[in-house]
Amino acid sequence: MKRISRHPSALVAAVGAPVMGVALACLLVGCASTTSSASVGSGGSTTSDGSETATGTSDVSTTYKDGTYRADGTYSSPDGEEEIAVTVTVKNNVITAVSVSSLESNGEGAQYQRQFESGISSVAVGKPLATLSVSNVAGSSLTSRGFTAALATIRSDAAA
Q1: Computed from CA positions of residues 73, 75, 80, 86, in that sequence, does the dihedral angle turn out positive or negative?
Q2: Of 45-54, 100-109, 133-142, where does the model show the most confidence?
């Protein structure tokens, strides 16, 4: 059994940054005002391939008009500027359908966009539009930046 020094830096090294991050987040949530109308959701999970899926981070008090919305999102990759088109169908503030298609990709970007396209539906459908946030889908982490940019436009367009 490993002995841990009582020095604070030894505790951080032993416990690890992820646990300390959770502790800090809990501390911050505990300090939040009880009169705030915004709430932070958490619906994140990890898939069998280790990819992070969706988490909630936005104001859930916003309501959205039912409909289908489309927006483009750009992001930078090692191969240059990439662009994807995102289409989301919303009903009762929940995403009922999502599709992503490549508008512009360079080199490996096309491969990662195809991976993202194949996995985004299982991550996004059934999640509230207000709280959906993705960071890594089917092994594609950069494409999610373009998706997030497009989703911000869609939220704005769909706001009631």
Answers
A1: negative
A2: 133-142
Neighbouring-strand partners of residue 51: none
- Is the pTM higher than 0.85? The answer reads no
Q: How far apart are CA 160 and CA 65, in angstroms?
A: 5
SS3 26: helix
The three-state (H, E, C) secondary structure of 137-152, written as one string: ECCECCHHHHHHHHHH
CA–CA gap between residue 14 and residue 101 (Å, rounded): 44
Whole-angstrom Cα distance, residue 11 to residue 39? 31
DSSP per-residue codes, 50-84: S-B-EE--S-TT--B-SEEEEEEEEEEETTEEEEE
- Beta carbons within 10 angstroms of residue 75's beta carbon: 18
63 pLDDT band, cuts 50/70/90, is very high
The total of other beta-carbon atoms located within 10 Å of residue 158's CB is: 20
CA atoms of 85 and 18, how far apart (whole Å): 33
Question: What tokens does 73 get?
Answer: 């999102």
